[in-house]
Design goal:
Elements lengths: L2 H13 L1 E6 L20 E2 L3 E2 L2 H10 L3 E6 L4 H10 L10 E6 L12 H6 L2 H7 L3 E6 L3 E2 L3 H11 L3 E9 L7 E5 L5 E6 L13 E12 H12 L8 H12 L2 E5 H4 L7 E2 L4 H10 L27 E3 L1 E2 L2 E2 L1 E3 L2 E2 L4 E3 L2 E3 L2 E2 L4 E2 L4 E3 L2 E2 L4 E2 L4 E3 L1 E3 L4 E2 L4 E2 L3 H7 L1 E2 L5 E3 L12
Parallel strand pairs: 1-4, 1-6, 4-5, 8-12, 14-19, 17-20, 18-21, 19-22, 20-23, 21-24, 22-25, 23-26, 24-27, 25-28, 26-29, 27-31
Antiparallel strand pairs: 2-3, 6-11, 7-13, 8-11, 9-10, 9-11, 15-16, 30-31
Helix pairs in contact: 1-6
Length: 421
């Protein structure tokens, strides 16, 4: 099959595909960063939200029918989707729609990942897709889902599971699978205490990425059966996938085969340390994730902001940023920022120093502050002369200090109650 013919084949498959993004989770390991927003709505990379990555993967893969399922504190997420993802053309049947939890099939909210889709089966039936791609809305990566759908169709699969090798000691947090020479899944264990290593590599396990392709008819029938099972937890990893090993055609798909980013780049930024590290890495000369790739752009809401500005050039009062990502609307006046990520509309006043920190939108750092190894949440105002990141014991009295020594600062910790009356 020629490359052009293959692309046309994949385009036809993706035109018959519905993507469902599961974006209802809190992400409690991010601590106070998700007190007022769902994890997929957490800002990332200077101007994006976490959910922009799976959504951009859909658009770049040619999947233009996308439903986003929300539940926990979803206002921030819904507002972002309305503002940033309304560019698809309804007259051509393209959409990104938000499906909030509505107790459509009973009195309960979503009780698991499978139940979340089951409660929206009537909506899925209206679109009548041939294939359904189910995605987590809270991971950072680039992937061509079209290649995965094509492999699913070629295998005549009922389910295809996206997979990636992970270090064995980290595999306890994932669904771990074993496959045969044909990539058929022959074993699956959800978050096992003793993960099974990959054949030929005792240091790694083959982990599920939480990315699934389903044949739509199989998915409908299987979810209806699962909903009637009182012993089920109504979860893909615990119930749907293990059952399919015995009763359906289930295959794996290697992330590397669909990867369009850096070698094997896939991050679950589910802890403060992981979140800080993934953001700070973007400030490196050669970051692991290429944000400047025009062939696979990351789409988001584009605020109309003025360019970043650096003011004053005196010897002890110089506005400058080194090895730093600085977003639109930022003002760095007579202060120094090093190896950091500044989101939109950040102000750093004179005689302040910011090092190795992730500063979310609308933060104001007043005069004479020293900020190091911090994540500062949106809208916080750091009082004049504040020092954070130099004394862990003192920081722990006021802020959240992670296992890796990263300090999370929110407005509420500073007595600035932005979210209450």
């Amino acid at each position: 099959m020629s490359e052009i013919t293959a692309q046309r084949h994949i385009s036809k498959l993706t035109s018959e595909t519905l993507a469902i993004v599961l974006a209802g989770g809190r992400g409690s390991r991010l601590k106070q960063l998700t007190d007022w927003r769902a994890k997929p709505a957490v800002p990332f990379g200077g101007k994006f939200r976490i959910i922009d990555f799976p959504l951009s993967n859909c658009i770049n893969s040619g999947i233009r029918h996308i439903s986003v399922l929300t539940q926990y504190k979803s206002h921030s997420l819904q507002r972002h989707l309305q503002r940033g993802w309304g560019f698809l053309s309804g007259q051509f049947g393209e959409f990104v729609e938000v499906l909030p939890a509505q107790q459509r099939t009973g009195e309960g909210w979503y009780s698991g990942t499978a139940d979340a889709i089951y409660q929206n089966l009537d909506i899925m039936r209206e679109y009548n897709p041939e294939y359904v791609v189910v995605l987590a809305g809270d991971h950072i990566y680039k992937m061509d889902y079209g290649k995965m759908v094509a492999a699913h169709a070629a295998n005549g699969a009922d389910i295809t599971v996206g997979c990636i090798p992970v270090p064995l000691e980290e595999a306890k947090a994932f669904g771990v699978m074993d496959i045969n020479e044909d990539s058929r899944v022959i074993e699956f264990a959800e978050k096992p205490e003793n993960p099974k290593s990959m054949p030929g590599d005792d240091t790694q396990a083959l982990a599920s990425m939480g990315i699934y392709v389903f044949s739509a008819e199989y998915l409908r029938n299987r979810l209806i059966k699962d909903a009637a099972d009182k012993n089920s937890t109504h979860d893909f990893g615990h119930d749907i996938i293990p059952d399919a090993i015995e009763n359906a055609n289930i295959f794996s798909f290697s992330f590397i085969n669909g990867n369009t980013g850096g070698p094997g780049y896939w991050r679950d930024v589910g802890t403060i340390d992981a979140y800080w590290e993934a953001n700070i890495n973007l400030a490196e000369i050669q970051p692991d994730l290429d944000m400047y790739d025009n062939k696979w752009p990351i789409w988001t809401h584009q605020e109309q902001l003025p360019p970043a500005k650096f003011a004053f050039d005196d010897e002890e009062r110089r506005g400058m940023a080194v090895d730093t990502m600085v977003s639109g609307g930022c003002l760095i006046t007579g202060s120094t920022v090093r190896h950091s990520v500044l989101f939109s509309n950040v102000r750093v006043h004179s005689f302040s120093e910011v090092t190795d920190s992730v500063i979310l939108p609308d933060v104001e750092i007043r005069r004479g502050c020293r900020i190091s190894r911090c994540v500062i949440d949106k809208g916080a105002i750091i009082p004049e002369g504040t020092i954070i990141g130099e004394d862990a014991a003192e920081d722990a009295k006021r802020f959240e200090v992670s296992e890796g020594g990263i300090v999370l600062v929110t407005p509420e910790m500073l007595g600035q109650n932005l979210h209450s009356a």
